[in-house]
Amino acid sequence: MSGTTTAAARPRRRASGAGAGASRWVVLVVLCVSLLLVALDATVLHVAVPAVAEDLKPGAVELLWIVDVYPLVCASLLILFGTLGDRVGRRRVLLCGYGLFGVASAVAALAQTAEMLILARALLGVGGAMIMPATLSILRQVFPDRRERALAIGIWSAVAAVGAAVGPLLGGFLLEHFWWGAVFLVNIPLMLVSLPVGRMLLPESRGDRDGPWDVTGALMAAGGLFGAVLGVKRLGGGAAMASPFTVLPLLAGAALLLLFVRRQRRLAHPLVDLRMFRRPAFSTSVGCIVLAMLALVGLELIAAQYLQLVLGLSPLQTGLRLLPLTIAAMAAGLAGARMLRRFGPRRMVCFGFCLTAAAVLTLTAMGGTDDAPLLLSGFVLLGFGLETTLFGAYESMLSEAPAEQAGGAAAIGETSYQLGAGIGIALLGSVMNAAYAPGLRSVPGVPQHASDRAGHSLGEAYDIAGGLGGSAGAALRRAARDSFVHGLHVTLLVSAVLLLLGAVMALRLPRVMNCAESPAAVELPAPREVADPRVTA
To answer: Which of 35, 370, 391, 437 has its CB surrounded by the most CB atoms within 10 Å?
Structure first.
C-alpha cells in the first residue's frame, strides 16, 4: 500500500522534531500517564454521585446522564478520532485531547448546574476518545519489535487496571477532604505537565494519506455507535425493551452502522479498511475482547452489590475486597509478554478464558454469609484470567493490523471493549433480574404490590422490608437476600458458559507468536533509530 511507503519515508524529515531523541520506554511512560487519567476519570465520579446529587439537585434523568455521558461519548467517537489520527498525525490528536481534557476538567469542577456538568462530562468524553486510540497507535509505532511491543502492551494494560481500581479510592479520599469538584481538578496539573512533555518526547506519525478523509463515514460511525451504546446502556439500566427510548436508538444505531459498513466497502480509500476482519487473528481478537468484557463488567457490578447488600460491607470495604482482582490483573499484564512468547496467542487466550471460567464456577459457592478465603481466591483467579485474555487479544489484534491503520485498529479494539462492557451489563443484568424476581412473588405476610416492587432490585426490597417492619419485613428481607444469591449463582453459570465459548473462539488465533512483520505492516523506526534508513520487516 502506498501509505506504507509514505510512512517509511517520513521519519528522516522529522528526525529533529519532537520525540526524535526520546527513548521508546520514556515514550511508554508518557502514554501510560495519558491512559491512567482516562481510566481514572471513567470511575472516579462513582463515589461522588451522592455529593453531586445533594449539591446540584439534578433530576433522575440528569443524574443518569452525568454518570453515563462520558463513556457514551467516548465510545461513540473512538473510530472518528482513531482514523483522524492516522491522517493528520497521532501525536497532534493526542495533544489536542490533552488540552480538551484539561479544560473540560476545570469546567466540570466549577459546574454550578447539572446541565453544565453534563456538558463538561461530554467534553471529557471527546478528550478521552482523542487520547485512548492515540496511545495504542503510537505505542505500536515506537515498538516495531513485537517482543518489546508485547511487554509495552502488558505495562499499558496493567496501568489501565490500576486506573480503573484507583478511581473510586481516589474519589473517596478527595471527598473526605474537599468538595466533589476536586475529583476533576486532579486532572489539571497532570495535563499541564503532559502537554509540554508530550510535545517534546512523543514522535509524530501518520498512516495511509491517499484520498480524502471520509468525513461522512466518520459521522455515520459516531452516530451509529452513539445509538447502539445508548440503547445497550438503557437495557443495562433496566429500561423496558419495548420502550421507544430504547428501541429507537438501537434501530437507528444499527441502521447507521450497516450503512457505514456498506459505504466503506465501496470507497477506494475507506475510513476503516474492513479487510482487516478477513484476517482470522484480527476478527477473533476483537470477538475475544467483547466476550471478556461482557463477562467482567456484569460480574463486577453484581459482585459489588453482593458485597454491600448481602454481606453488609461498606463501600470502602467493598473496594478493598475487590482490590485483589486488580492486583492479579496487574500481575497478569506484567507477565503477559513472557507468557505470550512461551505459549503463543492461541494457548494464552484459551488459558485465560478457561481460568476465568474456573474462577466464576468457584464463586458459585458464595452464599448468604461471608467467606473471605473463597472470595479472595475467586477474585485473584478472575483478575489474572481476564487480564491474560485481554492482553493476548489486544496484542494479537494490534500486531495483525497494518501500521498505517494502527489508529483505526486501536479504535476498533477500544470500541469492542466499550460495547462488550455495555452488553455485559445489559445481558447479565437481565439474567440476574429474571432469576431474582420469581422468588419474591409470594412471600408470607407481604402484600402483592409490595412483593412486585421488591422484585425490581435488592436495594428496593430492603427499603420496602424496612417500611413493613415486623415478621413480614423480616421475611421479605430474608427472601430477597436468598433470591439475590440464587440469581447470582445463575448469572455466574451463564458467564462461565460465555467464557468457555470464548475459549473455543480463541482456537482460531495463531499457535505461535510470529515476530516477523508482514510487508503490509511496515513500521516507523523507533525514535532513537530514526536516522537508520532500514525499514523494519
So the answer is: 391
Report CA 267 to chain centroid distance, whole Å.
Answer: 30
Domain boundaries, the chain: 24-209, 214-270, 274-513
Which residues have C-beta within 8 Å of that of residue 349, sequence separation ≥ 6?
288, 388, 389, 392, 393, 396, 502, 503, 506, 509
Indicate the SS3 state at residue 523: strand
Going by C-beta distance under 8 Å and a sequence separation of 6 or more, which residues neighbour residue 187? 37, 40, 41, 101, 102, 105
**Dist CA 107 CA 119 (whole Å):** 9
Residues contacting residue 130 through CB under 8 Å, at least 6 positions apart: 77, 81, 85, 93, 94, 96, 97, 100
CA 103 – CA 191 distance, rounded (Å): 9
In this structure, the dihedral spanned by the alpha carbons of residues 370, 371, 377 and 382, taken in order and rounded to 10 degrees, is -40
Domains 24-209 and 274-513 alike in fold: yes
**Helix, strand or coil for residue 372?**
helix
The top-level CATH class assigned to 24-209 is mainly alpha
Nine-digit cell string for 95: 495533544
Contact 337, 151 (CB under 8 A): yes
Q: Does domain 274-513 have CATH number 1.10.3720.10?
A: no
All 3 cell numbers of residue 109? 469542577
Where do we find the cell 449463582?
Answer: 489
Question: What is the distance of C-alpha 420 from the center of its chain?
Answer: 8
Residue at grid coordinates 466476550: 291
Round to whole Å and give the CA distance between 136 and 491. Answer: 33
Sequence-separated (6 or more) residues with CB below 8 Å from residue 198: 30, 34, 91, 94, 95, 98
Helices then strands, counting H and E runs in the chain, come out as 18, 0
Tens of each residue's pLDDT in the chain, 537 residues: 333 333 333 333 333 334 444 587 888 888 888 777 777 776 666 667 767 777 888 776 677 678 778 877 888 888 888 888 877 888 888 899 989 988 998 998 888 888 898 899 889 989 888 888 888 788 877 887 777 888 888 887 777 777 766 766 677 677 777 777 888 887 888 788 888 888 888 877 776 656 677 788 888 888 888 888 777 777 766 666 677 777 888 888 889 889 988 888 888 777 777 778 888 888 898 888 888 887 776 666 677 778 877 888 776 677 778 788 888 888 888 888 888 888 888 999 999 999 999 998 998 888 878 888 888 898 899 889 988 998 888 888 877 777 667 667 777 877 787 777 777 777 777 788 788 888 887 788 788 888 888 877 777 788 888 878 788 888 888 888 888 888 888 888 888 888 999 999 999 888 877 665 543 333 333 333 333 333 232
CA angle 246, 250, 251 (to 5 degrees): 115
Q: Distance between CA atoms of 103 and 99, rounded to whole angstroms?
A: 6
Q: Any residues with CB less than 8 A from the CB of 13 and at least 6 apart, and which?
A: none
Fill in the amino acid letter for 295: A
